[in-house]
Amino acid sequence: MKARMMFAGLAAALMLAGCSNMSSFSNPFEQPSITETYFSQFRDVPIPAPMSTIPSETLVTVGPDGSKFGLESFSGRVDGTSLANVMMQNMARQGWQLRGSSVGVRSVQLYEKSPHYAAIFYREGVVNTSMDVWVVNGVNVDILSLVPEVHNSVNSGVSSYSGSTYSGTSYSGSSYGGTGSGQVTKLSE
Question: Do 145 and 122 share a structural domain?
């Protein structure tokens, strides 16, 4: 009987000692803090610390002035809505102006910091949230002025582009700022 009491006491002591070390285990469902940031490829786009770069999905190029443009992809165990809110705050601190956003399971935010634009896409998964950060140089306004003209001409079905008028499925000339010719595929209605 005395041996059983000693065994039970020893077992209880071991259980209590084992339970005291359990506080070192982290909760797998606990969300990490996303307030700490770092700068990755783009020098003025702050990335929350729990987000890790996905090198195989990243394509960044360097412009003549040393600035970087392209796509950098990230993934991390964070809540998508919280991530989007923190990115909105962090981008504003860096001087980016929010120009538009759409929130849902797949969300997007569009920012401008003249002469650059940034588009951030969020995809919430079961475990991880993915974030794609696109940074591009300013858009050539002369090209944008051709969009309504090109759209109307494609829909009217005329056959050639020369100068500033577009029609049909091919174009040539240099009034759009480039040279040469190319093909445009008309979408079926």
Answer: no
The count of structural domains within the chain is: 2
Query: Does a structural domain hold residue 8?
Result: no
Q: Please indicate, yes or no, whether residues 51 and 126 belong to a single structural domain of this protein.
A: yes
> Across all residues in the chain, what is the average pLDDT?
75
Is the same domain home to 129 and 57?
yes
* pTM, rounded to two decimals: 0.59
Domain limits at 159?
141-177
The answer to whether the Cα torsion of 139, 47, 108, 85 is positive or negative is negative
Residues 172 and 131 in one domain: no
14-66 tens-digit pLDDT = 666 655 555 555 555 555 667 788 999 999 999 999 999 999 999 999 988 88
